[in-house]
Amino acid sequence: MWTLLVALVAAAPPVALPKVGSCPSGYSTSGDYCHPGSSARYAVVKVGTCPSGYSTSGDYCLAGRDDTPVAVAKGGSCPSGYSTSGDYCLASSRTVEAPAELPATAVGKVGTCPSGYHTSGDYCSPGSSARYALAKVGVCPSGYSTSGDYCLAGSTARHALAKTGVCPSGYQTSGDYCLSGR
Q: Which domain holds residue 114?
């Protein structure tokens, strides 16, 4: 079941990340992934300089607080609703209505943007009705539906990662994806 929330910034919960070098603080190695522990904060793979509000933790940028805005690696101009912060696009302080567990964030543009998103440069930027989306690799995982070149989270969706090797601890295989157990 999805719980809707209205926040002043687009914050995201920590999720498993692809392992690049050492895992960030609060995460542990689990196969080819870094799995968040109970004290983990949202993190992104480091590309150049970490964005405002984030600190370097090995090969990752770690959010300074739980309400730090979502950052996505910059590829061209930032999408609408995001501002440039070093080599990243940082969600602007704004009201965002999104599922607490799987917030809709900008995703790199691959073909046509998924339902609820609009093209913004090299990104698909979420609108007010957007659901969590990830680029489609094979068949969408359980709980997700196909929307062009993307998989859109349904009401029972769990966090999904494109599978590379063995799924991290707490995740299970669902076709070409790893799905969280919660």
A: 4-180
